[in-house]
Specification:
CATH class of one domain: Mainly Beta
Radius of gyration: 24 Å
Structural class: mainly beta
Number of helices: 0
Helix content: under 10%
CATH architecture of one domain: Sandwich
Distance between the termini: 96 Å
Strand content: over 45%
CATH topology of one domain: Immunoglobulin-like
């Protein structure tokens, strides 16, 4: 007599629900026979940034580094703690451009000052580079 025990099937279809410079939310299609999922997040140097257990098919992760590539792994487990397959994807948090960039000329003796108004969600510090291009009419 054989007792055939199967581990749960692989989760499928990892979706990036939201992505900012320092956080992300992922979801995936439920795996048949799944009791819970383990989610691991490694940076591009192989360092585990987060490791969590979830009984839902959506997870949010914060405190990520801007401009970093992460490998996300979702592993399924059944109620008997049997490990199923792992689904992986790669995502980069990127360096985001301003959502809103506006300026106001500031009058001074030479007329060369500009005040910039910048809105950057989830960014507390940034560098702004300005390149001046002159065109002269002849």
């Amino acid at each position: 007599m054989f007792l055939w025990c199967l581990a749960p099937r692989i989760p499928s279809s990892i979706q990036i629900e939201s992505l900012t410079a320092n956080s992300l939310t992922i979801s995936w299609t439920a795996a048949e026979g799944a009791s819970y999922y383990e989610i691991a997040i490694e940076d591009d140097e192989g360092q585990v940034g987060s490791y969590t257990r979830s009984d839902t098919t959506i997870v949010s992760v914060s405190e990520l580094q801007p401009g970093t590539t992460y490998r996300l792994s979702v592993t399924v487990y059944d109620s008997d703690e049997r490990r199923g397959n792992t689904l992986q994807t790669v995502v980069s948090t990127g360096n985001y451009l301003p959502v809103n960039l506006d300026y106001t000329p500031c009058p001074d003796k030479k007329g060369t000052s500009i005040l910039f108004h910048v809105t950057l969600p989830n960014i507390s510090r940034f560098n702004l580079f300005i390149r001046h291009i002159s065109e002269f009419a002849t």
